[in-house]
Amino acid sequence: MKFALIEGKRTEATKGAKGSCPSCGSELIARCGELKVNHWAHKSIRKCDSWWEKETEWHRSWKAHYPNDWQEIVMSDEITGEKHIADVRTIHNLVIEFQHSHIKTQERISREKFYKNLIWIVDGTRLQRDYPRFLRSFESFRQVQEGVFIVDFPDEVFPKSWLKSTVPVVFDFHGFSANGHDEIKNTLWCLLPQQQKTQAVVIGLKRSAFVKITHNHEKLFITKNKPEQQQPLTSLTSSRNIQRRGPLIDYIEKRQSSNQHRTRKGKRK
Ligand SMILES: [Zn+2]
After folding, report:
1. What's the DSSP call for residue 17?
2. Tag placement on the chain: N or C end, fewer CB within 10 Å?
3. pLDDT, tens digit (0-9, with 9 covering 90-100), for 44-68
C-alpha cells in the first residue's frame, strides 16, 4: 500500500517507519528497497484485502494522476461489513481499479458488484501477445465517429477475462516505460460492456482526456435507459468537444441491427 496511518495521518512509506492499516487496523511496516516501489506491508497477516495486488510503477504512475486523498479509499458494504481498498475513488464516487495481474472471472464479478460505479484500467503490457493481437485486429475496426469504433468478434481482440465485464474496461498498452511514438499504443482503448457476443463498442481516448473526465464526472459515459445507449461525454476522445451525441447512438444501433450477418474474419455471407 502507498499509505499507512501514523498518528491518524495518511503517510507514505519511509525507511524504518511503522504505521497502521487504514482498513484492518493492524501494524504495517515500511518496505523501501530498490527492486520494488516503496510501500507498506502488513507485519503479521499477509493480506487483509484479498483483492489487493502488489503495486508496480505502473500502478503508482496511474494513481499519481489523482489527488492523494482520492487514493486507497477503504470502502465497506453496510450490510455484510465486507471491506476493500479502492485504488482510486473520486469525489464523484467513481472507483478506478488498476489491474496488472491476471484476474479470475469470479473475482472480477465480485469486484464489479462491490464497487458498482467502476472503471477498470488494465495493464496491456503484462502479456507480450496482447498488443500485437489488438494491432492485427485494429484495421478491421469500423469507425462510427471520431474515436468510436464497432468491433466484430471482440474475443479475437481482447483478453477473454475482460469480455463479459459489466463496466468499462480500459486497456493501457503503453504501460509505464514504453516509448512515445506509437499513436495506437499511446491511446487508451475502452471496451464498453458488451451487449452482443459478436460485436462490441470500443472507444479510443487520450490519457489526458480520460484523467480530465474522471476528475470531473461520475461516469465516463452518459447512460440512458438502456445500457447499450451509452454515449461518451464531450471531450472524450480529444480536447476538442464532440457534440454529435445523438447520431452516435443512432449509428451504433443501426449498425448493430444491420450487421447481424457479419461472419468471423470480416467475411460477409
Ligand atoms: Zn490491513
Report:
1. -
2. C
3. 876 789 998 889 999 999 999 999 9
User: Using an 8 Å Cβ cutoff, are 95 and 70 in contact?
Assistant: no
CA 18 to ligand 1 center in whole angstroms: 13
C-alpha pair distances (Å), 33 with each of 37, 39, 196, 246, 260: 7, 9, 47, 53, 55
CA of 33 to the centre of ligand 1 (A): 21
E strand or H helix that includes residue 151: strand 148-152
Ligand 1 centre and the CA of 83: distance in Å? 10
Reported ipTM:
0.99
φ, ψ at 148 (rounded to 5°): -115, 125
Amino acid at the residue 46: R
Tell how many helices (H) and how many strands (E) occur in the chain: 6, 16
Please give the average per-residue pLDDT across 231-260, as a whole number.
Answer: 40
Q: What angle do CA 199, 205, 209 make, to 5 degrees?
A: 145
Residue 92 Cα to ligand 1 midpoint, Å, equals 25
